[in-house]
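Checklist before submission:
- one chain only
- standard amino acids only
- sequence pasted in full

Submission:
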Amino acid sequence: MRTAGVLRQARYGHPAAQQEAVQDQSAGPLALGWSRRMLRPEFRGPDQYVGLEVEVPDDAPVYDRLAGWFGRDPGWTPGGS
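Returned file contents:
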């Protein structure tokens, strides 16, 4: 599964199963730390799988910071609502 799908499920749950999201608060910091070490700049950008980093406050929840790091707006909601 691509990063966007993982982040969407972490935030909103799995729509096909009508499941609520369950965020493992111990996994978020590990994923963020690992990805900051591994994601190289040449893999970011409009034509890449990972967008440019979206700025998120340092004190934001870890999954919001993770979404921003992967180039996703943590304030986005399905259907624009």
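Reviewer check: Residues 11 and 21 are 6 Å apart (CA to CA).
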